[in-house]
Structure formats: structure tokens, C-alpha cells
């Protein structure tokens, strides 16, 4: 139940890459903030020892956590335990049961490949059945709608939905949380946040690098599975959702997000542009002749009273010109004023690498004859230490039983339903040059073109 703290944290894949880059730094931060003071049990198949795991943890925080905190890190080491064994061997989980002792509501965090989820969940259910255990599952959750449904059925054999936390680190990012808060905390925005004033919504997630040696993983995934189905549909639901009720029940917020996705029709191949950067086939682990996309641009619609007729455009890709994640809400163009044609205003939410809000406006051209000049008024919300650690935020929520920043079963299945028709088949991706905005067809998808994230506001 929400508010009842877990008395232990067991995390699987303790010697893996995710633990090294994200989990140990998050655990140190949680210990430092006082949010974690219970046994932390690492489980791995790797033939390690507790001392070697402690050394690995130190290397992790030195490289990815800003260094070993002189107070928090020794505390974390005192809390750390280790269980070694194969995930298919019941003896591994019997040893874990002994380490857990009488701990109530233990969190079991599966930072392992999803192919192992079912066998691990079954064993966890065996040793912790009826004990209020909580299950945290890493993304991806499924690879299409059918696999997500099968996986949901498998985990529900051991856990009820209230005890399942499907993690998407994007929901722990401060900027994404600020997007929702800004929408509903400022009265001036709500009157124009509808089909009468909004012409279109554009969501961009651009990365200026390739697949960073993850060829074998990425070639089985692609851009739509990797970031559109989860991260960017989360952004869309945050933009389009109705205000949740004033109660403190986090389920009302998740209800509103699900309502948005239920109003979105499945994707059509004709409204999707897929691209692949030149040189992708040279990456280690990529299959010869692979048709996996490294870029996707697509159009969706939300069939609700608020958004009827407003197109939502999403694009994401690798080897693009800049590192940027942002939402641009393009407003309807005003009529000419004093014979001067005007352009559309917009509201820009920049979610990364920093959080900024921009308002596109038109002012009189200095010295001009009734001419207009378009500029962007920029507000930046940043102060030292403002950005939180998404993994620390989400693991802290799971330890408290707070579910609202995790994906619920119906949300996950609705997201897969939307993208499922374009995951297989369709035309092969178009090759694009690294450092460009993907295939030219992506620009033609949007009437009037994309609002370029590379354009900065004037000083």
C-alpha cells in the first residue's frame, strides 16, 4: 500500500551495465538523502563476491555518481548484501529469502533482460507470496502488443497490479514533471489549450550520436520501440491530458493519461516516415541488410473534445544535428493586422538538456513601416542542484509504494496498440546523412514544416 515503506531492496542484475551506470549512483543518493536505510541485496549470476560487488559500486559512483560521498557511500556499503546464483535455480531464491529475513514489503527490482522476467517473477512469488512484496520492472515491457499482454498475464500470476511498478526513467526527470505542473499551475495557459487555438503539436527527441556500440540491442529494437512507444507517448499524454481531480490519489493522474491514449487511433504506415543513418550497417552487432530504423517521424490524432482535428507530430532519431527534447505547441495564425501578414505564435517546452519555456511572439519591426518581427521570449528555470536523479526518484517512490510515476498495465497496452501496426512490414527506411534532420520526407509530413529546435532565442 502507498505510504508503507519497504524494509528491503533486492535488485537483480547487480553486476550489469545498468547497475553500474545508474543504480549504484541512485542508491548512494537515496542513502545520502535519508530515503534508504534498509538492506540492499544484489543478485547476480556472475560468480562474484560481496567484496568485488563493493569495489564495483565504488567504481560506479566515482565514474557516474560524482564520486564516493564520504558519509553516504560507507553507509551504503554497510547496507549492501550479495546473493549469487542462477535465476533458474530455486536455491538462489531460497538464499535470497534468508537474506530478506522478516523484512516487510521488500522491493524486487528486475534490472535484467525481459526474457528473464517470467522465471524470476515466478520464483519471487514463491518466496514472497502474500508478503506485500513490490515488483519493479525495467523497460522495455514487451516488444509489441501481444508480448506485453503475455508479460502482464505472467506477472499477474504472482503480483496484483497495485504491487507492480513498470519503470520508465523519463517519468522521473524533473523537466517532464515540470511540464505537467506548468500546464495546470498557470491560469493563462488553459483558455488556449484546445482545438480552437492550437493548430498542431510537435514533439522532437534528437540525439547527435549513433548507437554507441549497442548494435545487437538496437537492431532488435529501433527508434519506435526504444523511445516513441514509451518516452514520447508519455510526453504526448502529459500535453493532452485533462486536469486530474484535486485528490492526492495518484491513480487519478494515471487515469487521465490512459484516457488520452485510448483516444489515439493506431498508427498508419502512410503517416510514418522511417529513416536509417548512413553507416548504420557498419556498426558492430547490426545484421547485414538490417531495416531497423534509427529515425522515425509520425502523425497522431487525439479524438477528444479538446483536441479534435489537431495533429500531433512526433520525431526522434540518432545522429541528428543537436541534443534536444522539446514540445512545440503551434497556435493558429492571427489574421493580418494593418495589412501586415502575421505568422503563428507558439509555446515551446524544452525538456532537455535543460528545462526552458519559450513563447513565440510578433512585435513591430524597429524602423519598419508597420512590419512585424518574430521573436521568442525565453524563460529558463534552473538553479544548481535542481535536476534530480530519475532513478533515485523512482526507486524512492517504489520504496514508499507510490505508483503515480510508473506505467500502469492499461497504459502500457494502449501504447503498444498505437504503434503495433507499424512495427512490422512497411517500406524500408530511407537512408539519411548523419548530422541532418532525417529523410526529406519527414519535413513533408508537417504542413509548414517542423519548428527547428536548433534555432535559439535571440539574446
Main sheet specs: 9 strands, mixed
- The proportion of residues forming helix, as a percent range, comes to 25-40%
Runs with pLDDT <50, length 5+?
none
Q: What is the gyration radius calculated from CA atoms?
A: 24 Å
| Structure classification | alpha/beta
Specify the overall morphology: globular
Order of helices and strands: EHEHHEHEHEHEHEHHHEEEEEEEHHEH
How many β-strand runs?
15
Count of helix runs: 13
Strand content: 15-25%
Query: What's the mean pLDDT score?
Result: 90
Give the spatial strand order of the biggest sheet.
14-13-12-11-7-10-9-8-15
**Distance from first to last alpha carbon:** 50 Å
Assembly classification: single chain
Structure description:
The protein has helices at 17-32, 50-64, 72-79, 90-100, 117-128, 145-156, 174-185, 215-219, 222-240, 250-262, 390-400, 409-419, 440-444; strands at residues 9-12, 40-44, 80-84, 107-110, 134-137, 164-166, 198-206, 272-277, 295-301, 311-317, 324-331, 346-352, 356-364, 372-380, 430-432. The longest helix is centred in the middle third of the chain and has 19 residues, at 222-240. The strands form 2 sheets. It has a 9-stranded mixed beta sheet. Strands 3-2-1-4-5-6 form a 6-stranded parallel beta sheet, with helices on both faces. Strand 12 and strand 13 form a beta hairpin. The radius of gyration is 24 Å and the shape is globular. The protein starts with 8 loop residues before the first strand and ends in a 15-residue tail after the last helix. 33% of the residues lie in helices and 20% in strands. It is built from 13 helices and 15 strands. With 459 residues, the protein is α/β, with parallel strands linked by helices. The mean pLDDT is 90.
Amino acid at each position: 500500500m502507498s505510504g508503507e515503506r519497504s524494509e528491503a531492496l533486492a535488485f537483480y542484475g547487480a553486476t550489469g551495465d545498468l547497475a553500474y551506470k545508474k543504480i549504484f549512483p541512485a542508491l548512494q543518493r537515496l542513502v545520502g538523502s535519508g530515503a534508504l536505510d534498509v538492506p540492499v541485496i544484489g543478485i547476480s549470476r556472475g560468480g562474484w563476491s560481496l567484496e568485488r560487488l563493493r569495489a564495483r559500486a565504488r567504481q560506479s559512483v566515482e565514474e557516474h555518481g560524482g564520486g564516493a560521498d564520504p558519509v553516504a557511500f560507507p553507509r551504503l556499503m554497510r547496507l549492501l548484501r550479495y546473493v549469487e546464483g542462477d535465476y533458474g535455480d530455486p536455491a538462489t531464491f531460497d538464499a535470497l529469502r534468508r537474506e530478506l529475513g522478516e523484512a516487510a514489503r521488500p522491493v524486487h527490482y528486475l534490472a535484467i533482460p525481459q526474457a528473464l522476467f517470467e522465471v524470476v517473477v515466478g520464483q519471487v512469488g514463491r518466496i514472497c507470496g502474500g508478503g506485500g512484496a513490490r515488483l519493479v520492472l525495467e523497460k522495455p515491457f514487451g516488444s509489441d502488443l501481444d508480448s506485453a499482454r503475455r508479460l502482464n498475464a505472467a506477472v499477474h500470476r504472482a503480483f496484483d497490479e497495485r504491487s507492480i511498478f513498470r519503470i520508465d526513467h523519463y517519468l522521473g526527470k524533473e523537466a517532464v514533471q515540470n511540464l505537467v505542473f506548468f500546464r495546470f499551475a498557470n491560469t493563462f495557459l488553459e483558455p488556449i489549450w484546445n482545438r480552437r487555438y492550437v493548430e498542431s503539436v510537435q514533439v522532437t527527441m534528437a540525439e547527435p550520436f549513433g548507437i554507441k556500440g549497442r548494435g545487437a540491442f538496437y537492431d532488435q529494437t529501433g527508434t519506435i520501440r526504444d523511445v516513441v512507444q514509451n518516452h514520447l507517448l508519455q510526453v504526448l499524454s502529459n500535453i493532452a491530458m485533462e486536469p486530474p481531480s484535486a485528490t492526492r490519489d495518484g491513480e487519478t493522474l494515471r487515469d487521465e493519461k490512459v484516457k488520452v491514449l485510448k483516444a489515439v487511433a493506431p498508427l498508419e504506415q502512410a503517416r510514418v516516415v522511417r529513416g536509417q543513418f548512413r553507416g548504420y550497417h557498419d556498426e558492430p552487432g547490426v545484421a547485414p541488410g538490417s531495416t531497423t530504423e534509427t529515425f522515425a517521424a509520425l502523425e497522431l490524432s487525439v479524438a477528444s473534445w479538446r483536441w479534435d482535428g489537431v495533429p500531433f507530430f512526433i520525431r526522434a532519431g540518432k545522429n541528428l544535428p543537436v541534443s534536444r527534447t522539446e514540445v512545440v505547441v503551434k497556435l493558429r495564425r492571427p489574421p493580418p493586422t494593418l495589412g501586415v501578414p502575421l505568422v503563428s505564435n507558439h509555446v515551446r517546452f524544452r525538456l532537455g538538456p535543460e528545462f526552458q519555456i519559450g513563447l513565440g511572439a510578433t512585435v513591430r519591426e524597429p524602423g519598419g513601416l508597420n512590419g512585424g518581427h518574430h521573436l521568442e521570449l525565453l524563460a529558463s528555470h534552473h538553479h544548481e542542484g535542481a535536476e534530480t536523479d530519475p532513478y533515485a526518484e523512482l526507486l524512492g517512490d517504489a520504496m514508499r509504494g507510490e505508483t503515480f510515476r510508473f506505467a500502469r498495465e492499461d497504459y502500457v497496452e494502449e501504447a503498444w496498440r498505437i504503434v503495433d501496426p507499424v512495427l512490422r512490414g512497411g517500406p524500408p527506411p530511407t537512408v539519411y546523412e548523419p548530422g541532418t534532420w532525417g529523410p526529406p520526407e519527414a519535413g513533408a509530413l508537417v504542413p509548414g514544416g517542423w519548428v527547428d529546435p536548433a534555432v535559439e532565442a535571440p539574446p
